[in-house]
From TrEMBL:
Domain Prephenate/arogenate dehydrogenase residues, every copy: 21-299
Keyword field contains Cytoplasm: no
Keywords: Amino-acid biosynthesis, Aromatic amino acid biosynthesis, NAD, Oxidoreductase, Tyrosine biosynthesis
Top-level taxon of origin: Bacteria
Organism annotation: Leucobacter chromiireducens subsp. chromiireducens
Stretches assigned to coiled coil: none
Matches recorded under Gene3D superfamilies: 6-phosphogluconate dehydrogenase C-terminal like domain, NAD(P)-binding Rossmann-like Domain
Record protein name field: Prephenate dehydrogenase
EC number: 1.3.1.12
All copies of domain ACT, residue ranges: 307-373
Family indicated by similarity: Belongs to the prephenate/arogenate dehydrogenase family.
Biological pathway: Amino-acid biosynthesis; L-tyrosine biosynthesis; (4-hydroxyphenyl)pyruvate from prephenate (NAD(+) route): step 1/1
UniProt GO molecular function: prephenate dehydrogenase (NAD+) activity
Length: 373
């Protein structure tokens, strides 16, 4: 550590870590390994544990921490990053094994593990449930990233009996990993993630399943819309069986409501010339416009951006040149998405910018020889 209390990490000098280690991570998959990588980058001592010796060794090899030894000191904080169906077991065991440590879990469902622990009569004084809203379509330590939680909501589920010190420990971990703290009850959390995470997963998977019997010719017409709506369908089915089973009540309510909307839409399309039908269709589509406008954008803002599409040759260095020239032009890129044209050596870079700079950005790029749509 330097004299000014900062560390040199991946992104340069960083403030000293809030987390007082050592931190023990139980579960060395995507989330557990990412927690380890992020805390290790901040100089925190991290030990790892997993039922699979291969999994924990792999996470250690990637730098997420070291495999916990029998003579290691008791951790200050334990982070349980196991699959949802064994979260309660792992939390109970951690509380018994490390009675002086604060234990949190990062499971995507909060109410079911809590109720199971309460049913067993476990002393939950040192337990604080939490959930970082971050992940990737593929799991495992090999996909872990130190910045996985940066600028992502991190939900903390406390109760009136949670000691302030225990809460502070969990908040410190979340803040050191770049999370944005949000406090919710377990019930509020599960209903919220049912809407914004679990329902989209089911819809995406069911939509992607419709592609299985399709012809290659039809699949060849796929564009950005299909890719956007099916991206998360590549997620692990075994994990999602656990998540959906643990949060079945909110999700089934949402699915029933969505099924009603789909039935209304299909009924309207059966006779689009019927009086009032076009308005029914328009109202349903307009509701979608209103809903998508509420989705937070960059830095948690719902501000909308203008998208500029730039054609780039599918050759090495072209994207880097485009990004460099955007910087030279003083254009701040709020988001970026790439799409390739099937059968052609060309790609499309969709760049989100603030509306007030869009016109100038297009003019300046065209002047430099770029083609825009």
């Amino acid at each position: 550590m330097s004299g000014n209390g900062t560390r040199n990490g991946l992104y340069g000098a960083q403030p000293a870590a809030r987390t007082r280690g050592p931190v023990h991570v139980i579960g060395s998959g995507l989330l557990g390994a990412s927690v380890g990588l992020g805390l290790r980058e901040r100089g925190v001592d991290v030990t790892l544990e997993d039922l699979s010796p291969t999994t924990v060794a792999l996470a250690a090899d990637y730098g997420a921490g070291r495999v916990r030894a029998a003579d290691d000191a008791e951790p200050t904080i334990v982070v349980v990053a196991t699959p949802p169906d064994v979260t309660a077991d792992a939390v109970e065991r951690a509380l018994a094994t490390y009675p002086n440590a604060v234990v949190t879990d990062v499971a995507s469902v909060k109410l079911a593990p809590l109720e199971e622990l309460q049913r067993r009569g476990v002393d939950l004084t040192n337990y604080v449930g939490s959930h970082p809203m971050a992940g990737r379509e593929r799991g495992g330590a090999i996909m872990a990233r130190a910045d996985l939680f940066t600028a992502r909501p991190w939900v903390i589920c406390r109760d009136a009996e949670t000691p302030a010190e225990a809460l502070a420990h969990v908040e410190d971990v979340a803040l050191d990993l770049g999370g944005v703290l949000i406090e919710m009850t377990p019930e509020e959390h599960d209903r919220s993630v049912g809407l914004v995470s679990h329902l989209p997963q089911v819809v995406s998977s069911l939509l992607a399943a419709r592609l299985v019997p399709a012809t290659e010719q039809a699949i060849g017409l796929a564009g950005a819309g299909l890719r956007d709506t099916t991206r998360i369908a590549a997620s692990d089915p075994e994990l999602w069986i656990q998540i959906l089973g643990a949060n079945r009540e909110p999700v089934t309510e949402l699915l029933d409501a969505l099924a009603g909307d789909i039935a209304d839409f299909a009924d309207a399309l059966r006779d689009p010339e019927r009086v009032g039908t076009k308005r029914r269709i328009a109202d349903l589509l307009s509701a979608g416009n209103a809903g998508v406008a509420r989705i937070p954008g960059k830095h948690g803002s719902s501000e909308r951006f203008t998208t500029i599409t730039v054609l780039i040759d599918d050759t090495p260095g072209q994207l880097a040149r485009l990004l460099t020239e955007l910087g030279e032009l003083g254009i701040n890129m709020e988001d970026l998405r790439l799409e390739h044209s099937p059968g052609a050596q060309i790609g499309f870079a969709e760049i989100a910018v603030l509306p007030e700079v869009a016109e100038r950005a297009v003019a300046d790029l065209v002047e430099r020889g770029w083609r825009t749509l």
